[in-house]
Amino acid sequence: MFFFGRATAVTKAIAFRDMNEYNNFLMDKLAKLANIGSVQSHFVLSEGKTETAYPLTQNIQKEKGK
Question: What is the pLDDT of residue 64?
Answer without folding.
Answer: 62
